[in-house]
Each structure stands twice: as structure tokens, then as C-alpha cells.
Design brief:
Layout (H helix, E strand, L loop, with lengths): L6 H13 L6 H8 L15 E6 L9 E3 L10 H4 L3 E5 L8 E11 L10 E5 L2 E3 L7 E2 L1 E7 L2 E5 L4 E2 L1
Antiparallel strand pairs: 1-4, 2-3, 3-4, 4-9, 5-6, 5-8, 7-10, 8-9
């Protein structure tokens, strides 16, 4: 009897492929991310989860953010690993509160991703390639050139 396949189970499988350091075809990954969830609805962007944080340093718009109110940095595992909570919706000045997107869609007209790109914390920004040192954390995937779906994965020390 065939198993029910959901977008979430496919994403988890793709993450497992990455974490086990196996390579896979990007076109296949893109096709898998576009499969509908059981019942015909897509899970991408169905709900945006936001949280308010107090910044303890200046945080640029669309920067990855830690629970300590700082810009996340994959090169600084002692300060950021296990503390990444999402992406700043707008710039947040030191000492002020702002909104962080924990999961769901984020649109930035300045981005130019390829649809289906897998996105990682790399240094203090988001990139379609993981860092070579520090720690690696999956941030989400590109839904369009200017929209990503935040879906944080677990951090792994390199």
C-alpha cells in the first residue's frame, strides 16, 4: 500500500540527504518541493509565525536573528548555534523591539534566488551554500527569486 506523501515529509527527506552529505539533482529537489500536500493544498506559506524580540545590537532588514537579539553568525557557534530563531522582517535598532519571522514566507525585492534553492545561514547572512566552518543551519528554501519559505532546521557543528 503506498504511503501518503506530504511536502513536509519530502522536505525532511531532502534535509536528511543533505545532512548525510549525499548529493542530489537540484531539478529533482525543486520538483519535490512543489508537490501538493495530501488534500491538494500546499504547506508553503500557509501560515507565517512571527515573534517580537528586543535587539541588543543593530539588526539589518532580512538578517538571520538569534534569541539573544543579535545577528546570527555561523562562524560564531558559541554565540549563535542553537539560538537562531528566524529572519528580521525589517531593520531593528539596538534597544528597540522588532518582528522576526520564525516560519513562513519572507519577500525581499533585492533577492535573486533560483526557485528551489536550499538556503543556509552562512556567516551573518543567508546563502544557497553552507559555510565551510563554524556550524551549518538550514534556513529554508526559495519559493521564487524574491520569496523564501523560512523552515529552520537543526544546527550542526562543522
Amino acid at each position: 500500500m503506498p504511503q501518503n506523501v506530504t511536502t513536509d515529509s519530502i522536505r525532511e527527506g531532502l534535509r536528511n540527504l543533505y545532512w548525510s552529505k549525499k548529493r542530489f539533482d537540484a531539478a529533482f529537489a525543486k520538483a519535490m518541493l512543489e508537490l501538493p500536500v495530501q488534500g491538494g493544498a500546499k504547506s508553503d506559506g500557509d501560515a507565517i509565525v512571527e515573534v517580537s524580540i528586543s535587539a541588543t545590537e543593530n539588526i539589518p532588514e532580512f538578517a538571520p536573528v538569534t534569541s539573544k537579539g543579535k545577528v546570527a553568525d555561523s562562524a560564531n557557534a558559541s554565540q549563535s548555534m542553537g539560538r537562531v530563531i528566524g529572519i528580521a522582517r525589517e531593520a531593528i535598532a539596538d534597544g528597540f523591539s522588532g518582528v522576526v519571522i520564525e516560519s513562513g514566507e519572507v519577500t525581499n525585492p533585492g533577492w535573486a534566488w533560483a526557485i528551489g534553492d536550499l538556503l543556509f545561514l552562512n556567516g551573518t547572512s543567508i546563502a544557497n551554500s553552507p559555510p565551510e566552518s563554524g556550524f551549518v543551519q538550514f534556513i529554508g528554501s526559495a519559493k521564487s527569486p524574491t520569496t523564501i519559505v523560512v523552515d529552520l532546521g537543526p544546527p550542526t557543528l562543522l
